[in-house]
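Progress against Task 2.4 (sequence-to-structure conversion) is shown through the following example record, which the project officer requested during the mid-term review.
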Amino acid sequence: MNRIKSVFLAGIIGSQILISCSNSDSVEQLPPSPSSSSELQEYAYCVYINIQECLSGSFTSCPEKGRLSDFCPYVNSSSSGGDESSSSSDESGSSSSDDENSSSSSDGGNSSSIEGSSSSAGNLSSSSAGGNSSGSQDAGIYEGDVFTDPRDGKKYKYQVASSGARVWMTENLNYSRNNTLGWCYGIGEELGTEGADLDACDEGYGRVYRYSTAIDGNSPKGLCPEGWHIPSQTEWDAASSINRIYAGNYNLNNSYPPLGWKARGTEGLYWTSSGNSYFLYMSSGTFQVNSTASTLDYFSVRCFADAEQNCGTAKFAPTTHFCVGTTIYQRCNRASYDPKTSFC
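Structure tokens generated for the chain above:
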């Protein structure tokens, strides 16, 4: 990819620079190729889909098989043309972007969108420039408002709250750490083998866990994937608009009969990170945090996104941006999209 950039950039006048397109409020498709009758028309950009960058200027044709366009579909394209010393090097370096005053460095000479290490005034902050990745795999994969847990490949739908203040999964956690943790609903009159993977855990219901298992000695993250955490009492109090799943629970507490599996389809009980007695109770008419849980309870876990998450060596705010691979893209009306075919 660096070779491709070097070929077409070498012959471009220094004043023509690769820049990002300005943000809009809706997702637009990549520009169509102009017809032969418009060959003499001047266009503002040459779009290079293979490296996801744009060359600005005044063009009637594009070098190196670029596509003529009046707009640039890449939110955070960066690097300057004409002088390769100001663009990313093979190992490290920095380059400027017109979008939100962000800067980025590249781990392989490719600085499309926000690649590798990045900083921005718009809720993006950088880690070491040109350094090793700080865990893009830990951050998981975001595609079409679906998060893929890199630990086991399970997928979870998620959404940005209507307030825009937080991001949460709309499905319950179904993580078992190599089939050793949590229980699926209705496995028998008594709890069977912990971690058994059954269909009852599917369709967003997830597993139920004891509090100590859910917290996993690491509050508030608990068993949630990297970049996510178990919400506190305060966070639950502000999440009444969350997708409600009535997964039921397993009960060994005689104070709340019946014992065993109960309430699938009518009640949801979720752990908080505020202590082992606090849980969120939801039903069709109730949504409130209580403080009467015990070590005899087995409740669900719903993960909320951290305020900042990793994408390659960069950090981003999941309320306003999303990550695909090691590239950060800006959300469009709180939603993600396929950056290969659309932009916001």
